[in-house]
Structures are given as C-alpha cells and as structure tokens.
Amino acid sequence: MSARRGTVLITGVGRSKSIGAALALGLAEDGWDLTIGYWAPYDERVGFVRGAHDPQDVAEKCRALGSRVDLVPGDLASPDAAAQLVDAAASRNDLRGLVLSHCESVDSSILDTTVESWERHFAVNARASWLLIKAFAERLPEQRDVSQVTGRIIALTSDHAAHNLPYGASKGALDRIVIAAALELGSRGVRANVINPGPIDTGWMTPEIRQAATLQTPAGRLGTPGDTADLVRFLMSDAGGWITGQLLHSNGGFRTS
Length: 257
What we know:
alpha/beta, oxidoreductase
C-alpha cells in the first residue's frame, strides 16, 4: 500500500466502464485519497452500459487499495454544485488535485441543436469546470516559492465537433479555461493540463465506429481507459510537475479525415 498523498477530487465517475473509473482506481493505487463526483440521472439519460451501483462499486475497489473515498452526487448544471463538491473534497484539509472527467454529451448538429441543449452543455462542460477550478484554487494561498507544486488540475477534452456540436464547442471552451489556469494560478503552485484521449470505447461505439476509429489509429488499436489513466497518474506524480499549460494528445496518433 502506498503512503497517502492527499485527496483528489474526480468528477464524472458514474459508470464502471468509463475513463473516470480507471482514473479513480489508478490514483487510489498511487496512494491518493478520493472524493468521487457523479450524477446518476445523466448516466440514466444517455443510456450507456452501466450497473445498478457503479459509483459505489468503483469506490469499494478504491477502498480495497487503501484509499479513503467519499462519494458525492451533484448535478454540475447547477451553479452551486461545484462549490459543494470542492467543500466535500476539502473536508480532510488535504485537497491536492482536481481531475475533471465529467461531461454533457448528446449528439446534435448545427441545424438541430436546441438552445436548451447548447446551454446545458456549456453549463456542465465549461461553466462548471471554471467554478470547480475557482473553488479549488481559492483554497491554495500565494506561494513564496512557485516552483513547489501545491495543486494539480487535469481535464479531459475532445476535438469532436461535427454532428456533436454543443459538446465539441463546450470542450473547446474547457481547453482555454484550463490553460488559463496554468498561467493565472502558477503563483499558487498549480500545474494545469488538458488531455485529449481520442476515441475510447466505454460503451458507446457501434461495430462500425470501432472499426473506423481503429483504422485511423497508427498505433493499431483503440485507446483504453487505462491508457488515459496512465498519463493522469504521471501528471499527478512528482515526475509530472514540470508539465503545465499543455493540451496533450494521448490517442495512439488518431487522426480524423
């Protein structure tokens, strides 16, 4: 069992078959305690593969690795949810990391996107991410030695846009928010980065999508949640403290035509 390193708040861990679940398990293995954010009504609405008690099952697996875990439900479309999540994660006074794995993602295009859908995507993917970062950073004082890392922010993004317009547009806003955090919060010892993991099958791919995405990936296979978790674990480690303000592509060379 690794020595405990502090607490990380991870959002978007509603399903066992997800990137968020892999992130939680990897960070627990590395000695981090966790506050896990999730919102079951979203996972029910989109209808991807899930069990009846997935957040609880992920939490129990993390506890078996020695991690202290708190589960905190919250609808990030609400302006109040971000501060409530951060307050819960900071209850042990050792909050050191923020990993943003949540999203609103409902396919639609320029001609059929509704204003309601557009606003919910931006509320969850952009506004909530800003508010989470803000609440996290407010707990980190200005540092005399800014070379010392006191907090890490990592967010998952996407370059998908056509026929998934509000998702892609709001993820583009997320990128800018996180890169701004690296610059604006450096004096608080923050390192902030964005990861684009490319297409990862967490229960949403059809056989046709799976085949097409594999053919467009020079590494010869689709990415897995574990591939993304490996990079997050590195960025959360002492060895990853020199990397900040970056949009990192961890996608096996995936390209769209």
